[in-house]
Amino acid sequence: MLAAKDIYDIVLSRGDSLFPLGMSQYLSNTNKPIWGLLIDPDERRFHTLFGDIAPEDLEQFNTSFHHTKAGYRVNAKGYFPLLTSDADVFLISKECLALDAKDVEALIIHELCHWYIDSGLQSKKPLGIGSTDKLKAKTWYRKTDQENEHITRHTLPFCELLCAVSARAVHTYKSFSNREALIASAMQFDIEGGFRV
Predict the structure, then answer these.
(1) pLDDT per residue over 40-95, tens digit each?
(2) Contact 36, 4 (CB under 8 A)
(3) CA distances, 148 to each of 74, 113, 153, 170 (Å)
(4) CA dihedral for 80, 72, 124, 28, sign (positive or negative)
(5) Which sequence spans correspond to the domains of the chain?
(6) Which end of the chain, N or C, is more open, meaning fewer C-beta atoms within 10 Å of its C-beta?
């Protein structure tokens, strides 16, 4: 099982190396922290995973507990106005930490794609999307729960970015033997579970 520091390190290292504007530079430019929340479905609470989250901020998050496998929220203060800081928040469920390290990495890459789109960086500093990425993305997009796209944000542009980033990740980190395996792992709860019944 990966420790909190391992999760934090993967978020930063993949965020820094797989996108045109890295996570560290983004956090510096926006002068905001990144906080990690552990989703505990048994207790129906969020717990601090990483970052300096004040107790009153943690309580704010717990006023609106939602269970999901993983997530990323840009500008959390927009959803929780009483937070003491407008942090970005990475979330991961307790049961996901028991997955193989490479599957946790794939979930993190998935959530980093949400970060890059939701922060507006894909519009301002885009990662190039090739024709192969676009073709593969259409296949993955058809497998998603499109009826819940307004919640999941698994749009065609998201799938295109995930395909492009996955190719870079396979080349850079070698955790997966090919892009398809990484994408399948990254989307495992959105194709075989999640909102699908």
Answers:
(1) 999 999 999 999 999 999 999 999 998 999 999 999 999 999 999 999 999 999 99
(2) yes
(3) 20, 18, 8, 29
(4) positive
(5) 4-98, 101-191
(6) C
| Cβ(87)–Cβ(51) below 8 Å | yes
Encoded tokens for 153:
């944000």
pLDDT at 145: 79
Supply angle C-alpha 104, 109, 112, rounded to 5: 125
CA angle 121/75/73 to nearest 5° reads 80
Long-range contacts made by residues 129-138, C-beta under 8 angstroms, separation at least 24?
129/160, 129/161, 129/163, 129/164, 130/164, 132/163, 132/167, 133/160, 133/163, 133/164, 133/167, 134/160, 134/163, 136/163, 136/179, 136/180, 136/183, 137/162, 137/163
Task: Label the pairing between strands 34-40 and 88-93.
Answer: parallel
CA distance 182 to 170: 8
| Interval 92-119: pLDDT, tens | 999 999 999 999 999 999 999 999 999 9
Report the C-alpha gap between 59 and 51 in whole angstroms.
Answer: 15
Lookup: tokens for 137: 């993305």
* C-alpha to C-alpha distances, 168 to 20, 110, 183, nearest whole angstrom: 11, 13, 12
8 A C-beta contact, residue 98 and residue 83 = no
**DSSP per residue, 50-97:** ES---HHHHHHHHTT----SEEEESSGGGT-TT-SS--EEEEEEGGGG
